[in-house]
Design goal:
Elements lengths: L2 H9 L5 E3 L15 E9 L2 E3 L2 E4 L1 E10 L4 H13 L5 E7 L4 E11 L2
Length: 111
């Protein structure tokens, strides 16, 4: 799966999605939660014979909500499972933003 495919699949969940961050202007305000951002974090390519043999991109998919929203978390998790993308999950309360951040760490192989 490629990054553009991941974007399309996340969009299919029916909430705003962007890479890294939303560009906020006077004419284009930030979306209301829930929304998703995702971004490349680091690579952990498989190396053989002194070359990068298989590209492995580690991505962070971040769900933002104003309250603990198990149903929306389940939608994201079900989509990742449907795509065959194992994930690890972390949760944080962002006090300044008054939002929960649910972070899913995934790997895209060959991306």
């Amino acid at each position: 799966m490629e990054q553009s495919e991941l974007f399309g699949e996340l969009k299919s969940l029916g909430m705003p999605v962007t890479y890294s961050h939303f560009t906020v202007t006077e004419k284009n305000p930030a979306p209301a939660p829930p929304f998703i951002t995702f971004q490349f974090a680091y690579s952990s390519d498989m190396i053989a014979d002194n070359q990068n043999y298989v590209d492995v991109g580690n991505y962070q998919v971040e769900l933002y909500t104003t309250k603990k929203d198990l149903a929306t978390e389940k939608k994201v998790q079900d989509k990742l499972k449907e795509l065959g993308l194992p994930y690890s999950k972390l949760e944080s309360w962002l006090d300044d933003e008054k939002m929960y951040q649910i972070l899913y760490e995934i790997q895209l192989i060959g991306a």
